[in-house]
Write a structure and sequence with these properties.
The complex is a heterotetramer, with 2 copies of chain A and 2 copies of chain B. By secondary structure, chain A is of the alpha/beta class. Chain A has helices at 6-20, 44-52, 60-72, 91-98, 101-104, 134-139, 151-161, 212-225, 243-253, 268-280, 302-308, 312-324, 328-332, and strands at residues 2-5, 24-28, 53-55, 76-81, 114-119, 144-146, 168-173, 180-183, 196-199, 204-208, 230-234, 237-239, 256-263, 289-293. Chain B has a 5-stranded parallel β-sheet with strand order 1-2-3-7-6, sandwiched between helices. Chain B has a two-stranded antiparallel ribbon with strand order 4-5. Classes of the chains: A alpha/beta, B alpha/beta. Bound molecules: thiamine diphosphate (2 copies) and magnesium ion (MG) (2 copies).
């Protein structure tokens, strides 16, 4: 095990897979010479040459489309989109091509296309550079949606992404690049569909992903001091989702809070809540609560930006509410 | 998928015959397919390639095994010219599991990855970035394969056209963009969609070698594609070919095409690409009428056999679909 | 009251509003000369001229963007997109411009932009022409999402859309254009955010929209014959959503089924379920069930197409399940 | 917003003075703004317009009240040239409720709809369809207003560029597309992004009147824009103006711009557009150095007052934001 930054763990994954598989290549804006805005691809141009590490013009629809085409033709493209917000320019290629090709070809065509990008709020970059758009990809059948919260997961999931055959929306978080964590030595792969219990607990299940994981863990630590035992589940991949891990935990704790940075309406948290409704209802001692962003674009002003996404006090309050609901409440209705 | 032929003035009999057979096969497929549609055997969309046969035919005859194509919503002709199995095409249109896509895809989505056919597409213009992507994959793996995307006048006004072609240009990809300018997008005339109806000029504006050709002249298309493929294989980057043509009927099986002026339609019908291919074959090889008749009969029989095969094929299996869907 | 087809009701709304407000105009592919693929705009070119009824090239991103710009500059554009699937080409303009402009300008800029389009399955038009994509718009703060199921609602909602100041995703259904219904005479406006109880009932609440409404009403009729009283709620606008109507009905019936044509994962039904979870949990005698499409693109084959979206037997079974769950099930857990 | 001036060879003193004042005001705004950024008073993105002042200045001087502009991520200069209130601009950058967008927007989103400023934009290229849309709205309401979209070399490779301009062309809209070719997109050189670096040729390919101009010569830009606006108002449709220029520093406040070759930077700095405006004013009007100094002092004082105003402005109100959000 070594301590690595999230961005360095991502680079290790790319480096190892590029060395292993000559069809892996990377395209994006400023990712070659400049090494990318977050330095994830630094050094790869020197190592793998301008054929496999290419800068592009500002052409998100084209880059994504070209990546999808290259994947269909048997290569393993990694297309880096600077901000997930800009992926909206390539939605047709993601929704109508990448996600559908396998079905449209009766299962024969595969699209091992990876879009690496980052989202989330981050210090005043405002409405068009701060979104958490995972719900849009989550809804489209055929896409895999990956949102690592730690360096180890980032590395392991990216390596797995490069060895499977379906289109992957690999969504990083601008706040996580400089965070550190232990990463196993040697070959380290994290398969899709396996959640991770970032903290075991028995009183309440909290589900969080991406940058909400570290935030939730701090809250869990605080609450532990008050004698409340919080289990924190990080699904790591939203599609496929580790339903079993979630439902087992909820069956145990009988209470659940879901934390997402994205705005509340129609987010992934809603879907997880609806799954627990259908499959875990009879286990629940309290309604599943969602802590989420406000239903607005992110404002520029820093205080408002922070007010627009979940912060620790809000997460803590929701957990407390989930715990303080007594069976009496049922009688009171 | 043609032979690896150098540019030549007099094409071989083999090529001439291949061009005629292909053009005629498309003609039969579309003409008979429309009948199946009217009988209710085919559902959904069906955009006939009638009148444009010269383009797919000429282009594909100039390509090699290992090359790639990407197609449009009007894709039957490209598929046939690429050498597709007519049985599997008809079965697909009849929604059978024996079809190219198990009946899951349909007319607008026939593809055959194994042979480098990246497929038809229901999104106008989408084949362009996909084709450029295949060309990029081939460059990265050091292949000298050329990728052709067939596209349309309508697509030329969509952002994806210039954006993708520009990527092919800066990376010197082995990519040929064939713009089938049939002068309409459904009922909208090209003059209403753009001030500059010479579409090849768009390629010039971003430094791409670009040409215009008579799309109803299969041999001219063939020769131009040969030259373009050579340019590509030399590493000089993409080539754009605008092939001017006209549909023989409306946009879709059910479109009467009343907006197409009679004289113009008559003009283009008098320059029918299938007739032209037949005439070229006769003039340049001295082949007899009865030999040609024999070919035509054979092709018609192949189609009839494909229909028989498809009708006899079992319906799709709900179970295998459920299994497929469960891990999509 | 007169009986009208859905498509004619839409045309009436456009006609009346174009007559009233000279800044209303329509652009789209084949909507002028040809009157649109579904004949909604037929006759409007002759009446309002080529300035206000214009055909466009195949340029969805451009059309949507131009519509948004015209709206910002004070006109009232109606942009017709042939299939909602093609709206993916204009997602940047919808998500990053139309939906955000009001916030980004501190509330001063408004975007009275209407995108009219249609979705849903319809007889073998396959994966790229059959989607129900309302969930993507539903998630984006700032958009209004309208999905009328009847001619009267279609007319009234479109008229209201043309008199309010926010971007509207007006989502029609290809199967509804030729359906008929009574439409009030004279000025008929349906405000956003007001659901409609399409059928009153007391045993179970079923929420459905667009083409799922008529299908659900047939099921409700069948069940009535068996003595089961189904309340069918059509929210009509998904954003804003008539939460009060839904929660009141659920408080009354204590059981709820949500029917959506879109695929299950991350659909609007999930969000409605999560709202009932948070605000109606203590009223429920059974988990809220969702009847939805499979998580796959729509296949071309007709039998498979039908198997991919909710049909009457599936809706009926879900309603029965919701009703047959007895308090005993709670004890049995 | 300039006066309704006909094309003329010798601009009036008023115009010359306006051009100089505007260019200088932008120079001060950016130079002093960068200092505020380094002091931590401004957060988020800040893309300086230093070196490109001649373009916004020349273009806006040729426009009229009632016209429209749409801008880019590098938008301060356009805003100032359009006559924006410096106080409200600085307040916006300082996240104050007294700013143009209540502090909700920030540098990349300053807009002022009332005056026809459709705003800066964080999405490269997005201002093009928005501007075409405004021009369409104006055509429909019978206004003779011209809309200018400022855009960039980077945007020219994005699909939206050709797709939107084509719509303006087929509808003969009063639309001017000003492409500020500063030869970089962040650190990517234009030569790496396209084979054809003469960007005006893209307009020609779709039948749009298109020109290239020296973007560091404010008067040349002014004259070309005047002519273009006249073409537009005559109903002849859109005009594309490519204005070639160079940044004086990196892409963003925090980009050292090491990739910009020193000689090239020196060359462009020696052709500084603010100096050029000052020289033009002096040469063509005989104004004295002390008069110019007075103007400069006045402009600097205006900026200082704006900072004072902004710093003194109250923080945004959480309550009013909550109310706003509740019905978004
Ligand atoms: C992006 C997109 N927009 C609209 C359509 C609907 N549509 C299908 S074919 C067609 C006309 C296409 O015209 P053109 O591109 O010239 O091809 P042609 O039909 O003439 O072969 C249209 C508008 C579509 N399939 N995709
Ligand atoms: C669609 C989109 N892609 C990428 C970016 C990130 N980005 C912001 S500015 C910029 C470079 C822009 O270069 P250019 O368009 O030439 O404008 P300039 O900065 O030179 O004024 C990039 C890539 C963006 N804002 N929008
Ligand atoms: Mg056409
Ligand atoms: Mg630039």
């Amino acid at each position: 095990m070594r301590e690595l930054m999230y961005r360095d763990a991502l680079r290790e994954a790319l480096d190892e897979e590029m060395a292993r598989d000559p069809t892996v290549f990377i395209i994006g804006e400023g990712i070659a010479e400049r090494g990318g805005s977050y330095k994830v691809t630094e050094g790869l141009l020197a190592k793998y040459g301008p054929g496999r590490v290419r800068d592009t013009p500002i052409a998100e629809a084209g880059m994504i489309g070209v990546g999808v085409g290259a994947a269909i033709a048997g290569a393993r493209p990694v297309v880096e989109i600077l901000y997930v917000d800009f992926a909206m320019l390539g939605m047709d290629m993601i929704v109508n091509q990448a996600a559908k090709f396998r079905l449209m070809t009766g299962g024969e065509g595969r699209v091992p296309f990876i879009m690496r990008t980052q989202g989330g709020t981050g210090g005043g970059v405002a409405a068009q550079h701060s979104q958490s758009l995972e719900a849009l990809f989550y809804h489209i059948p055929g896409l895999r949606v990956v949102m690592p919260s730690t360096p180890a997961d980032a590395k392991g999931l990216l390596k797995h992404a490069l060895r499977q055959d379906d289109p992957v929306m690999f969504l990083e978080h601008k706040h996580l690049y400089m965070t550190k964590g232990m990463v196993p030595d040697g070959e380290h792969i994290v398969e899709f569909g396996k959640g991770d219990i970032k903290r075991a607990g028995s009183d309440v299940t909290v589900i969080a992903w991406s940058n909400m994981v570290p935030r939730t863990l701090v809250v869990a630590e605080d609450l532990a001091a008050e004698g409340i035992s919080v289990e924190v589940i990080d699904p790591r991949t939203l599609v496929p989702l580790d339903r079993a891990m979630i439902l087992n935990s909820v069956a145990k704790t009988r209470r659940c809070v879901i934390v997402q940075e994205a705005n509340r309406r129609g987010g992934v948290a809603s879907d997880i809540s609806s799954i627990i409704m259908e499959e875990g209802f009879w286990h629940l001692d309290a309604p599943v609560e969602i802590v989420a962003g406000l239903d607005i674009p992110i404002p520029f002003n820093l205080a408002l930006e922070q007010a627009s996404v979940p912060q620790k006090p809000g997460i803590k309050a929701a957990i407390r509410r989930a715990l303080h609901l007594e069976p009496a409440a049922l009688a009171a209705e | 998928m043609g032979e690896p032929n150098a540019v030549a003035n007099a094409p071989s009999r083999e090529i001439l015959e291949k061009i005629f057979r292909t053009a005629y096969k498309i003609r039969v497929f579309e003409t008979e397919g429309i009948k199946l549609y009217r009988q209710g055997l085919i559902r959904g969309y069906f955009h006939p390639y009638l009148g444009q046969e010269g383009i797919a035919t000429g282009v594909c005859a100039a390509l090699k095994d290992g090359d790639y194509i990407a197609s449009t919503h009007r894709g039957h002709g490209h598929c046939i010219a690429w050498g597709a199995d007519i049985k599997k095409m008809v079965a697909e249109l009849l929604q059978k599991e024996t079809g190219y896509c198990k009946g899951y895809g349909g007319s607008m989505h026939i593809a055959d990855i194994k042979t480098g056919n990246l497929g038809a597409n229901g999104i106008v213009g989408a084949g362009i970035p996909l084709g450029v992507g295949a060309a990029l994959a081939n460059q990265i793996r050091g292949s000298d394969a050329v990728t052709v995307t067939f596209t349309s006048d309508g697509a030329s006004n969509n952002g994806t056209f210039m954006e993708s072609l520009n990527l092919a240009a800066i990376w010197d990809l082995k990519f040929i963009l064939v713009v089938e300018n049939n002068q309409y997008a459904v009922s909208t005339k090209i003059e209403e969609s753009t001030r500059e109806t010479d579409l090849y000029k768009r390629g010039l504006a971003i430094g791409v070698e670009s040409h215009q050709v008579d799309g109803n002249d299969p041999l001219a298309v063939y020769r131009m594609t040969q030259a373009a493929a050579e340019t590509c294989r030399k590493g000089k980057g993409p080539v754009l070919i605008e092939a001017v043509t006209y549909r023989h009927m409306g946009h879709h099986v059910n479109d009467p095409g009343k907006y197409m002026p009679e004289e113009k339609l008559a003009h283009y019908k008098s320059r029918d690409p299938v007739d032209r291919a037949r005439a070229d074959l006769k003039d340049m090889t001295g082949i007899t009428d009865s030999e040609i008749s024999a070919m035509e009969t054979e092709i018609a029989a192949e189609f009839a056999a494909a229909v028989e095969f498809s009708v006899a094929s079992p319906e799709v299996s709900a179970e295998s679909f459920a299994a497929f869907a469960a891990n999509y």
